Amino acid sequence: MARRWPQTRGLTPRGSPGSTRPRRRSRRYDCRLSRVFMPRFLFVTSRSAFPPTSGDRQRTHLILKAAASVGDVDTLLMSRSVTETDLQPWRETLGRVEVVVPRFRGEEAPWRWIRPVAPKWIDRAAHNLGRQSRAWAPDREVGGWIARQLGRVRYDAIIGRYLQPTARAGALRYVPVVLDVDDLDTEVYASRLRVPGMSGWRRAVIRHHLRQLERIVPDHLRRCAHVWLAKPADRAVVDHPSVSVLPNIPFPGGQTADVACEPVDAAKGVLFIGSFTHRVNHEGVDYFLRAVWPKVHGACPEARFQIAGSGLRDEKAAAWEKEPGVEIIGFVDDLRACYRQCAFAVVPLFEGGGSKIKVLETLAFARTVLVTDHALAGYEDRLHHGESVWVARNETELADGCLKLLNDPALRADMGRRGCDIVAASYSYERFQAIVAETFEGVSAAHPEGVRRR
């Protein structure tokens, strides 16, 4: 009896007649028919995998790649900013992707009646003043697309990237869902309350949101079959019977042998690399320039603060470059050249959830990194102060750490080498892929019927 291939729009199944996509060895079997079946997953995300120039995009890319090594993956991308240029390499390397745009909170009642007057401000007011439960409610258009897709194609599991977008897509109406928490929403909001110098009104809004999320998040987590966490410490705050730690790894996969740079004793560059479309990076650099850099440059005038990354607005770049010793590099294609010229990197961030991939990326290039204690979260068991990284708790310790590393080339070189070895041994793509494969084996065994309505 010939196998009946699932019907999809615009996608030729792997290994079927006429397909140009190579057929992989299957991982699932139907014993009654003695036939081999390829697992199939629906990946739901609001974060694009291309271009992989930021930590969230890199993790999206890596999860997709690991899932594609186990089975076929179709992706639902909920994004307004993605371009066809971004989607082309996605379709060529990671399979089918469909873009469906959810509504902004300001496009829903009662805000939609006044939104045309000032869309940006109304969206912000709806987010700040509205109930969080509405922001987590399934979007009609996205949920409708999922329902129609599940009516056409049999999937073995839904993979959700972040909890809120997964809920917004209506995916939690179905089982089984494997959720990549990465940045736990309650942790993100709690960390914002610890940011130095925050205004009173903003702190009040964040507290208001956090109280609501503390009720919403646990209920939504319970609807998932399995949860991936980015760091071990999250086990203490995520109450779920099926949890595993899927650690962040350097992109494209923890291979340090090809990128490690030789130390440069004369280097005086302090490097920050990040995407400035991410507010946390923007505010972290602002804080470092305001509270830390004047002390460093005053004590070491030859020091240079090198700022690299995409998404930095021209007016902000011009303002930062007026500061003594600051160099704006902008987007770079060759990260190795950037790291080769610096003495060490800095991650002066105080908020956010998950773990910071840029910490591992720096060590993969054999450069040590000066981090806040918050930025080290998730790596404390392997990366230790004074051995592979330098940890600071406040602006004074950040300035002192900068000067120590600038003035001691031998110390920073030893720390960079040790960190590079740790990354190669503990943060490999092979380990990452094995965790993903093991998860799907367990979920498939518990839900042999595949995705169904809850």
Which short descriptors sum up this protein?
454 residues, alpha/beta, Rossmann fold, 2 domains, 7-stranded parallel beta sheet, 6-stranded parallel beta sheet, disordered N terminus
What is the residue-mean pLDDT, rounded to a whole number? 88
CATH fold description of the largest domain = Rossmann fold
Tertiary shape: globular
- For the record, the CATH class of the largest domain is Alpha Beta
Q: What is the count of β-strands? A: 17
CATH homologous superfamily of the largest domain - what is it?
Glycogen Phosphorylase B
Distance between the termini: 32 Å
Approximately how much helix is present in the residues?
25-40%
- Into which percentage range does the β-strand content fall? 5-15%
Oligomer: single chain
Task: For the largest sheet, list the strands in their spatial order.
Answer: 5-4-3-6-8-9-10
Q: What's the architecture of the largest domain in CATH terms?
A: 3-Layer(aba) Sandwich
State the secondary-structure class: alpha/beta
Helix tally equals 15
Q: Rg to the nearest angstrom?
A: 23 Å
Number of domains: 2
Largest sheet descriptor:
7 strands, parallel
Uncertain stretches of 5 or more adjacent residues: 1-36
Structural notes for this entry:
With 454 residues, this protein is of the alpha/beta class. It has two domains: 28-102 and 139-249 and 430-453, 3-Layer(aba) Sandwich (Rossmann fold); 269-427, Rossmann fold (3-Layer(aba) Sandwich). 40% of the residues lie in helices and 15% in strands. The protein is built from 15 helices and 17 strands. The protein has helices at 55-68, 84-93, 119-129, 132-136, 140-152, 163-168, 185-192, 200-221, 279-299, 314-321, 335-340, 357-364, 395-407, 409-426, 429-446, and strands spanning 28-30, 35-37, 40-45, 72-77, 97-99, 157-161, 174-175, 177-180, 226-229, 243-245, 269-273, 304-308, 326-330, 344-347, 369-372, 389-392, 452-453. It has a seven-stranded parallel β-sheet with strand order 5-4-3-6-8-9-10. It has a six-stranded parallel β-sheet with strand order 13-12-11-14-15-16, with helices on both faces. Strand 1 and strand 2 form a beta hairpin. The longest helix has 22 residues, at 200-221. Residues 1-36 have low confidence and may be disordered.
